Amino acid sequence: GLAAGKGVVIPENREAAINTLREMMSDKKLGSAGEKIVVEEFLSGIETSILAFVDNDTIVPMVSAKDHKKVYNFEKGPNTGGMGTFSPSEIYTDELSKEISEKVLNRTLQGFKKDNLNYNGVLFIGLTITEDGPKVLEYNVRFGDPETQSVLFRLETDLHKIMEAILDNKLKDIEINYKKEEAVCVMLTSGGYPEDYEKGKVITGLEDLDEDIVVFHSGTKMLDGNLVTNGGRVIGITTSAGSVEEAAKKVYKNIEKINFEGMHYRTDIGIKFCEEISF
Questions:
Q1: Which residues of the chain fall short of a pLDDT of 50?
Q2: Model pLDDT for residues 191-206, shown as the tens digit of each residue
Q3: Rounded to whole angstroms, how far apart are CA atoms 279 and 272?
Q4: What is the domain count for the chain?
Q5: The model's pTM
Q6: CATH number of the structural domain spanning residue 216
């Protein structure tokens, strides 16, 4: 079932696997979402995300993005709904793009046609790039969060025109262009997330951010005239620049201006494969 991105567990041994099953199915840790469990092959490799526009005849991938699922730096801790992204993914070469199109995207469209499924919209595909090539982790019939923040930040073509073309089954007739700039989105989360966390913490500093910083609200609300936290993932701080490294510098410089009690975020989004950043 739906578990807000927190339903995937990678047990290191049999005992851990049994404990996970007990927590989900007997202790109802995930509520009704844990009533049915899928056990599948563990895929070792680098994860990447692909968003694609789809109509009945055409599937067009968007630019790539890399999502960081673990709550702590260096991919440590439990999975989350996503702690941040950068676009493009560092592993997404032209060769890999061609392989994903042939082995994943085109076959997905063929499967729709074989099963007489008319799907017009957006596909969000989670992949692991293994030694044997790309393997599908998951399909979602929606935009990905927080992948969308960094991907659409780079979109140059009017999104409304793209959606109109999709609805009219004319996706093949529209040219979709992206900015050459690269983008980074870092999520600020409530302390304790993805486990128990408190809400209602006053958020300050957003009015001091640079003009080219965009704040995507996720778990916020207005209370007594103040913007307060209202979820695990609170806000996504996003911008673009000439490189992922430059965008990351801008994002983290502006995060220093933001504050709420218990605020947590990863400090390695977009810089894991770049030179170390010094502020």
A1: 273-279
A2: 999 999 999 999 999 9
A3: 16
A4: 3
A5: 0.83
A6: 3.90.600.10
